[in-house]
Design a protein that fits this description.
This protein has seven helices and ten strands. The chain is of the alpha/beta class. It is globular, with a radius of gyration of 17 Å. The two termini are about 20 Å apart.
C-alpha cells in the first residue's frame, strides 16, 4: 500500500534514514503528485500522466511564512531542511527563488541546519536548476538504472527523457550524492548485468557518495519485491572496490 500525499508545505521533522532529523518542504500542490517519472516503486503511487504541470504550487511567500511560523516553535532545530514532498521539487516554476529564500531563513533562524534535496535528477540537464542545486548543502539525486531499457520500464520517464541525458547532467553538475533503489521481482531493476552497467554510469557521474536501499514504505507495482540485504551489501562492496563511497540502508 502506498502512503498519502502531503497536504501542506511543511511536514515533520521526521527521522530520516539518510538525513536524521529532517524538516520536509513540499513545494508541490497539496494532495497532488507532480513528477517527470512514474516509478514502479513510488511510495506515493502512480503519476497522473495526462495532468501535465499542475496549478496550486506553493508560493515563495507561503514557504517563507510557513518556515518563520514553525521553526521558532520546535524544541530543537532540525538537522536538515529538505526539499522533497509530492514528486519532483525542481519542477516548481520559482524553484531558484525559493532556494534562496530558504537559505536566508536557515541562516537567520536555524544556522546549525543544513539544506538538502531529494530529486529524481530529471532536470539535471538544466543549467539554471544546477546553479540552484549547488546552493544547497546536500544534493541527493536519483539513478536507479544502467541501461535505457531498464530506466524506461522501472522509472517510466515522461516526455521522452533519457538515461543518457540524466547521466550527462549529473556528470556536469558534480558533487552529488546518488540514491539508488534496487528491487527484485519480474518488474524489478536488479540483475548482475544491470548493476555492472549502472557502475559504468557512476564512473561518469563521480558521486561523493552512493546510497543503496530497497523497497520499504509500499509501492504500486505488485510485480516488485524487496531485494535481499545480502545483494544490497554486495552492490555496496562492488562500489567500494571501485573507490566509490557507498552506504547501504
Amino acid at each position: 500500500m502506498t502512503i498519502p500525499l502531503k497536504t501542506g508545505i511543511l511536514y515533520g521533522p521526521v527521522n530520516s534514514r539518510r538525513l536524521g532529523r529532517s524538516l520536509g518542504i513540499n513545494l508541490l500542490p497539496a494532495g497532488r503528485k507532480v513528477c517527470t517519472f512514474d516509478c514502479a516503486y513510488c511510495q506515493y503511487g502512480w503519476t497522473e500522466r495526462s495532468a501535465g504541470l499542475a496549478s496550486g504550487f506553493a508560493t515563495p511567500e507561503a514557504v517563507v511564512q510557513s518556515l518563520e511560523a514553525l521553526l521558532p516553535t520546535l524544541p530543537q532545530p532540525p538537522a536538515y531542511l529538505t526539499f522533497s514532498g509530492n514528486g519532483e521539487p525542481t519542477l516548481h516554476p520559482e524553484f531558484p527563488a525559493i532556494v534562496e529564500a530558504v537559505i536566508g531563513i536557515r541562516d537567520r533562524l536555524v544556522p546549525s541546519a543544513r539544506t538538502a534535496i531529494l530529486s529524481n535528477s530529471g532536470t539535471s540537464g538544466r543549467e539554471d536548476i544546477r546553479r540552484s542545486l549547488r546552493r544547497l548543502d546536500v544534493r541527493i539525486m536519483k539513478l536507479d538504472a544502467g541501461t535505457e531499457a531498464v530506466f524506461s520500464g522501472f522509472n517510466r520517464p515522461l516526455g521522452g527523457l533519457t538515461l543518457k541525458e540524466i547521466v550527462d547532467g549529473l556528470a556536469e553538475h558534480g558533487g552529488v550524492t546518488v540514491q539508488s533503489l534496487w528491487a527484485g521481482g519480474p518488474a524489478g531493476n536488479y540483475s548482475e548485468g544491470e548493476v555492472e552497467k549502472w557502475i559504468e554510469r557512476l564512473r561518469l557521474v563521480r558521486p561523493v557518495e552512493v546510497q543503496i536501499y530497497s523497497l520499504d514504505r509500499g509501492w504500486p507495482d505488485l510485480w516488485l519485491a524487496p531485494l535481499e540485504r545480502r545483494r544490497l551489501d554486495a552492490i555496496g562492496a562492488r562500489l567500494k572496490a571501485e573507490g566509490i563511497p557507498a552506504t547501504v540502508f
